[in-house]
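User: Can you model how nicotinamide-adenine-dinucleotide sits in this protein?
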Amino acid sequence: MGRLQDKVAFVTGGASGMGEMMVKLFTAEGATVIAADINEAALEEKWGSNEKVMTVKLNVTSDEEWEAAVVKVVDKLGKIDILVNNAGISTEKGLNEITIEDWRKLSDINGFGPFLGMKHVLPYMKEAAKGSIVNISSYTALIGMGLNPYSASKGAVRAISRAAAADFGQYGIRVNTVFPGVIETPMTKVLESSQEMVASLVKMTPLARLGQPEDVSNAVLFLASDEAAYITGAELVIDGGFSAR
Ligand SMILES: NC(=O)c1ccc[n+]([C@@H]2O[C@H](COP(=O)([O-])OP(=O)(O)OC[C@H]3O[C@@H](n4cnc5c(N)ncnc54)[C@H](O)[C@@H]3O)[C@@H](O)[C@H]2O)c1
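Assistant: Here's the modeled complex, given as structure tokens:
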């Protein structure tokens, strides 16, 4: 019996990095998983032939696309037990290079996207009187790591997660937030070209290594599962101790 046996889990950003690992883990634990992503080709390449995975092309900033995706899933599978708002983008730009368009784009995808996901999935969870939502923020929302729209958008994720936890606990719905540190995924590919940067990050990390997608996905699996039945509004930092210093 898997830890997510017979659950239906909707994972955004399911075509790459941590989201891809979540889809893998969740299906291995007995869930049917909806891998949603803006990158349709990557979805097809990764999950096209997996019968435990339903792929959905979704731009998380689109209210209409969210509505269509959620209705499609509920029509086909009858419910959504778990939502992981994981899709996101980052920027390497410093304060002087950031444009207003950059700020709006990051806020839109990273901050507004999770809001829309909750807006569309919560009514179904409310009707079912159960559900687990895990929102992916970042350690940059907690410590001073860049005056940029990325940190700001991830701070928004923290705030809306707490609000949703407070508002929807009465309906049996749990909402928790995960704050990854530096994790080796396509998003942090830029690190491959700077061994110096990697060495300095590792030096600042008590557990003395960068994170891997499974470090985060294992924690998300726990929070998504019934093992975390009394956990809501929690904030779990997964950064090897980086922000504890
Ligand atoms: N990698 C890190 O070091 C790190 C650290 C902290 C937080 N995070 C967060 O973790 C999450 C996953 O990041 P990752 O490292 O796996 O990145 P990734 O780039 O490997 O994967 C992100 C996925 O999101 C998808 N995506 C981007 N914009 C989208 C949109 N508008 N609609 C739907 N899908 C979209 C991409 O196509 C991609 O498949 C992100 O929210 C990221 O901000 C990452």
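A couple of observations from the model: The first strand starts at residue 8 and ends at 12. Residues 93 and 99 are 9 Å apart (CA to CA).
User: Helpful, thanks.
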